[in-house]
């Protein structure tokens, strides 16, 4: 059967050391650091919950380069959220890790919460997930601890440690697998520490996780 129009190109991400990683799905974990949960008005070790982003949310940024994202429409309150990203390989085993940003139209998300409606308009928009190269786990070992930070224009905004995840990576994967069939190519944004806040046009965000290349992104 012939296609009625050309199929979109597959979405791939660069792998440190060579090769490309084909993306299947993008899962995100909400409120997975205690201090961030508290700043969002929640507390305690609540059961994990998930939302998703489309593949075209990804903005690959090469190591040592400054990526660029457009300031999105419909918002005046665009927030940064730095996150460890887990990349799954064959057998849904961890292939590697990356550093990512879960950009959020916070005003739109907040309005959807008030109305009891889905969050997609606040989370799942184009260019809402800048991401650095995927580093194979063979190079990093398991990332269960280590500093995670984000600076905006050289000023520290977010700081935390991977060991403070409410639901660690293994627990998160187990919970995800209860609801979905995890596959090679799946990415999991594992949550953000406290300190989320707004960025403006022209701001430069620089994110860091111990053991991974830094991620630098400008809001165009």
Automatic annotation (TrEMBL):
<dbReference type="InterPro" id="IPR011234">
    <property type="entry name" value="Fumarylacetoacetase-like_C"/>
</dbReference>
<keyword id="KW-0479">Metal-binding</keyword>
<protein>
    <submittedName>
        <fullName>FAA hydrolase family protein</fullName>
    </submittedName>
</protein>
<dbReference type="InterPro" id="IPR036663">
    <property type="entry name" value="Fumarylacetoacetase_C_sf"/>
</dbReference>
<dbReference type="GO" id="GO:0046872">
    <property type="term" value="F:metal ion binding"/>
</dbReference>
<keyword id="KW-0378">Hydrolase</keyword>
<feature type="domain" description="Fumarylacetoacetase-like C-terminal">
    <location>
        <begin position="26"/>
        <end position="219"/>
    </location>
</feature>
<dbReference type="GO" id="GO:0018773">
    <property type="term" value="F:acetylpyruvate hydrolase activity"/>
</dbReference>
<dbReference type="Pfam" id="PF01557">
    <property type="entry name" value="FAA_hydrolase"/>
</dbReference>
